[in-house]
Design brief:
- Strand 6 and strand 7 form a beta hairpin.
- The chain has two domains: 54 residues, Electron transport complex subunit B, putative Fe-S cluster (3-methyladenine DNA Glycosylase II, Chain A, domain 3, Orthogonal Bundle); 180 residues, Alpha-Beta Plaits (2-Layer Sandwich), CATH 3.30.70.
- Helix content is 32%, strand content 12%.
- The protein is of the alpha+beta class.
Length: 292
């Protein structure tokens, strides 16, 4: 018995020494920049960058397989990553999610009562969804469930409400919306068309009181020629050219149905822009949004 125990102990000690030697001999030194970049990244492991988690992206950046601004949720920290890598980061505006639908349960009609799985992707399989408007948000909260940053909640009117301070522009909610009513837009823009219905005005209004009726009042009154009713998916819809839009809010005030809305939260990017030229705030319909 004793010789057997001693033999096993000796073998264990030998194998231990071999493993210790191998771990030292064949160890792979990790570039310290990987750990530094991981500390900068948001840590959500959302996969929006196309790599397996934040650690996978960090390793890819160090290897030169991904740019320093590859993380959409962490775009504001791109300059820090660029500093770690010793390169210059190009400045890009932060993106946030915007809802292109204003037809909540108080305005948009239902064509039948849906009692299935509470998921928009499941509901859309049944006759395109339960809403009379073919482009309406179904209001079942799939975007809320998939958002890794808890930046979306469902409002009292059955529409998603986005917290722009938490939204990182990762695009996961956009990819999972079966009605395509979620879009990524630059955070400095806060006037938006809150409708995706391309049907004729009469038909759109019959389905939803908040629909765009293609009256072109917005187009005729925009001082920058930044909004037009244009052909979209076989129909027409008011579309904003954000390169021209100055957030004046004239189209918002003229829209008779409320199909044009604005971001309800103050955005830091807008506040900074206004601070650079505070004289332009006088009389601006959107001046009340700025953080002073």
């Amino acid at each position: 018995m004793l010789p057997a125990v001693l033999s096993l102990a000796l073998l264990g000690a030998v194998f231990g020494l071999v493993l210790a030697f191998a771990s030292q001999k064949f160890t792979v030194e990790e570039d310290p920049r990987v750990a530094a970049i991981i500390d900068v990244l948001p840590g959500a492991n959302c996969g929006a960058c196309g790599f397996p988690g934040c650690s996978g992206l960090a390793a890819a950046i160090v290897k030169g397989e991904a740019p320093v601004d590859a993380c959409s949720p962490g775009i504001n920290g791109a300059w820090k990553i660029a500093e770690i890598m010793g390169v210059e980061a190009k400045h890009e505006e932060r993106l946030v999610c915007q809802l292109a639908c204003n037809g909540g349960k108080f305005d948009s009609k239902d064509k039948f009562k849906y009692e299935g799985i509470q998921d928009c992707r499941a509901a859309v399989q049944l006759f395109g969804g339960h809403k009379e408007c073919p482009s309406a948000c179904l209001g079942l909260g799939t975007c809320v469930k998939v958002c890794p940053f808890k930046a979306i909640v469902m409002g009292d009117n059955g529409l998603p409400v986005i917290d722009y301070d938490k939204c990182t522009g990762c695009g996961i909610c956009v990819e999972n919306c079966p009605k395509n009513v979620l879009h990524l837009v630059g955070a400095s823009h806060f006037v938006h068309v809150r409708c995706s219905n391309t049907e004729k005005g009469k038909d759109a209004k019959a389905a939803c009181k908040a629909a765009c009726i293609k009256c072109k009042l917005c187009e005729r009154n925009c001082p920058e020629n930044a909004i037009k009713v244009v052909p979209v998916n076989g129909g027409t819809l008011a579309v904003i050219d954000y390169k021209k839009c100055i957030n004046c809010g004239v189209c918002l005030a003229k829209c008779p149905t409320g199909a044009i809305g604005r971001s309800t939260q103050c955005l830091e990017e807008v506040a900074v822009a206004k601070e650079e030229d505070s004289s332009s705030c006088a009389g601006c319909p959107a001046s009340g949004l700025c953080r002073r």
